[in-house]
Amino acid sequence: MADFYQNGIITTLHNLSDRPLNELESELLKFSKKRPLALILPSLFSELEGPALSHIINEICEVPYLNEIVIGLDRADKAQFKFAQNFFGRLPQHHRILWNDGPRLQALDKELQALNLAPQEPGKGRNVWYCMGYILASGRAESVALHDCDITTYNRELLARLIYPVAHPQFNYEFCKGFYARVADGQINGRVCRLLVTPLLRALKKVFGEIEYLQFMDSFRYPLAGEFSFRRDVLNDIRIPSDWGLEIGVLSEMHRNYANNRLCQVDIADRYDHKHQNLSLDDAGAGLSKMSIDITKALLRKLATHGHTFSTETFRSLKATYFRIALDFIETYHNDAVMNGLKLDIHSEEKAVEMFARNIMTAGEQFLSNPMETPFIPSWNRVTSAMPDVYDRLLEAVELDNKEYGLA
């Protein structure tokens, strides 16, 4: 059970009473009559073949308050799209699948590419961006939740708690970030958040001072969580990265667009686990190594927009400061694990910290050598300005894809 402590400058909504799920869902059903609710599921086809997503869909089938479910399907050929139609066909709620690799959406993407308005690389960011565009196009929902499709500990209470803050008519939150303890199988997980993001934010504070943006980011209990919810109007102006900096980029956009009292974070699960990325110690272009570089660059880009300048000496100082803070955190996490009867391998933790420290320098070098790099996907406001009928065309493409295989 959580405490009620409010840390940082972002409101934290705790799980203080283990409130019965049927009470939460009953309220959400009432809210949905006036404020329709939706869910976005960005998925790889490979996730349809594993046990996690099948269980997630079984749980979502029991959710009574969703007006729409939007599924972004990546890396699927025609036969796999047909398989996905059957896979998601058990959902009783109104739902649509965006076949991102299908000829219709690929044709639309090609036109947007010609205008420099489409995502430049495949991945979760691109998938989420098109799903967000579909939510705007369909107009079927006012509040939307998004969560990953590889959660192995999923139950539908996670969704209820995630969407509740932006669904409640008397709350004024535009955006809500989910958080949870990354503990599973007797050990503490979440290495990138524990060993990179938090100590890096603390190191940046030491190097640049108590900047409000850094205080904002350090207020989130789990900034890399792939679970968040928002009001539909948030989607018009948001510019999200297409790389591993997605979650950091979304939080940075919320900081840019909204006052802190319009944002919150909520405890959504006592246990949370999903598939784990490889550490990739010897490959900076894969796994947690690439993730750490992209995340570091996302933070650097945001600080640059606040007028802060960087040099090679800055990054050397930042690396040294980070390294000392991160090593101290390892001792803290080890002691926490021991007291709770959990496992934590100090050797593997230190290897991860050493890699992250190297990657801070790598990220800094890439940032300095390519100052014009802009991995952000344009906002949908900009897209509709350049292509006024884009929503109609997106809707038509999705409807025709789904109708062709009997869903629509």
What does this structure look like?
The structure is a single chain. The protein is 52% helix and 12% strand. It has 16 helices and ten strands. It has an eight-stranded mixed sheet, with helices on both faces. A two-stranded antiparallel sheet has the order 7-8. Helix 6 packs across helix 16, helix 8 runs antiparallel to helix 9 and helix 8 (191-208) crosses helix 13 (312-339). The longest helix is centred in the last third of the chain and has 28 residues, at 312-339. The termini are far apart. InterPro entries: Nucleotide-diphossugar_trans (IPR029044). It comes from Neptuniibacter caesariensis.
Could you list the spans in which at least 5 consecutive residues all have pLDDT below 50?
Answer: none
Q: What value does the average pLDDT take? A: 93
Q: Estimate what percentage of residues fall within beta strands.
A: 5-15%
- Percentage of residues in helical conformation: 40-55%
The major pleated sheet works out as:
8 strands, mixed
Indicate the topology:
Elements: E1 11-13, H1 21-34, E2 37-44, H2 45-48, H3 51-60, E3 66-74, H4 78-88, E4 95-99, H5 103-114, H6 124-138, E5 143-146, H7 157-167, E6 175-180, E7 183-184, E8 187-188, H8 191-208, H9 212-218, E9 228-231, H10 234-237, H11 246-257, E10 263-269, H12 287-305, H13 312-339, H14 346-369, H15 380-386, H16 390-404
